[in-house]
Amino acid sequence: MDALRRRPNPPDVRWLGGHRGLEDRIVPGADIALRRLALRSLRTVDRDVHLVLDPVRLGLSIPQALVNLARERPAAIFTTGGYVAIPVLLAARILGIPALLWEGNIVPGRSVRATAGLASAVAVSFSATCEALGLGGTGPSRPCLETGTPIRETRTIDRLAARERLGIAAGERLVLVFGGSQAVRRLNDAVAEVLPRLVERVHVLHVTGDAGYAAALAGREALAENRRARYRPATFLRADMLEALAAADLVVGRAGSSTLAEVTAMGIPMVVVPYPHAGGHQGANAAALSAAGAARLVDDAAFDGPALLDALRILEDPSTHARMGAAARALGRPGAAEAVATMLLALAVGQAIPDARTIERIARGDVA
User: Which of 58, 78, 97, 186 holds its CA 20 to 30 A away from the CA of 323?
Assistant: First the structure.
């Protein structure tokens, strides 16, 4: 959104979504008009009444999407390919409205695989995703280009200022433990298991989630008084996350697309513990990061306190730390949002989408 709004003549943006998602909180707060379809943004996987109702809602949402798009006549549509994208992309194809689909995981989800053929063009975080979708290159039928994952602006964050605000002195090391929104308990338990030994060696900024915060505070109080300041638990960081990343020397966390994008954009080595469920998407993402030398991969079942302590050896070997940081930086795409916006606006005005080399340069931040 920011990448679009920074353009000289920013387009009018409207959101067509479903129910049960984050739309209620995020979209109005971003000053975007919100309209809803009958279906829910997130499907139920449990065996309950919604297992029957969700297909019904999907069927009702197709004519709804047709009416909405016919009334609004958008110049182009952008979608991340979730469940709600199915009726929207079907309606767009019927009405001849160009659509850009973005997928952030190496292994595309079922909705993306089902609808990629309806999109005019596809943007991906990993080139292997194009192969998984049977697409590739900038062919005349359906371009599939690697943009990276659109993230918040990282290039203006001052690392030294961020460390100063956190009270991290020169020569000291900060580890950021961040579980994201999925299965954070595994990481919380590992920190709790070895907390006294952990803070002997490093400062720790620990994002616990709501459920783990009280136990983390209790763990902090149990530390020796002269070590408590080295452990900082927080439920969530939200707007402060970028500064926390900028200040960190090592990140321990999950392998969600946005997390990996921000970590690599800042060139931070990572110990990545992929969430083992949700179709194995995170496992594939983590494997790519590890193969590039930017992360150490630890399976979820193997991650515990001793594994966390062992990860600190990355910090204690300057050559390893520098090598992993350089590998992360090489993967980073800090201009991904601009690259995606460039593709979308080209579709909106009926121009050819720039070639893969140009999109890569924009994504790497090499052009304005």
Answer: 186
Distance between CA atoms of residues 244 and 33, nearest Å: 32
Distances (CA, A) of 368 to 6, 11, 15, 338: 12, 19, 27, 9
Q: What element of type H or E holds 301?
A: none
- What is the C-alpha separation between 328 and 267, in angstroms, rounded? 5
User: Rounded mean pLDDT of the chain?
Assistant: 90
What's the pTM?
0.88
Residues 6+ apart with CB under 8 A from 117: 142
Phi, psi of 351 (to 5 degrees): -95, 165
pLDDT at residue number 325: 98
The partner residues of 295 in beta bridges, in order of sequence, read: 270
Q: Per the CATH hierarchy, to which homologous superfamily does domain 159-331 belong? A: Glycogen Phosphorylase B; (3.40.50.2000)
Distance CA 173, CA 312 (A): 10
Strands (DSSP E) found in the chain:
14-19, 33-40, 77-79, 99-103, 121-124, 144-146, 174-178, 203-207, 231-234, 250-253, 270-272, 295-297
Q: CA-to-CA distance for 11 and 1, rounded, in angstroms?
A: 10
287 within 8 A of 297, measured Cβ to Cβ: yes
The answer to whether domain 2-149+333-364 and domain 159-331 are alike in fold is: yes
Q: Return the CATH class of domain 2-149+333-364.
A: alpha beta
Domain ranges for the chain, please list them. Answer: 2-149+333-364, 159-331
**Cβ count within 10 A of residue 48:** 9
In this prediction, residue 59 has a pLDDT band, given cuts at 50, 70 and 90, of confident
CB 148 within 8 A of CB 356: no
Angle at 122 between CA 142 and CA 28, to 5 degrees: 135
pLDDT tens-digit readout, 64-119? 999 999 999 999 999 988 778 899 999 999 999 999 999 999 999 888 988 899 99
255-303, pLDDT tens digit by residue? 999 999 999 999 999 999 999 876 578 999 999 999 999 999 999 999 9
CB distance 122 to 151 below 8 Å: no
Gap between the Cα atoms of 129 and 288, Å rounded:
12
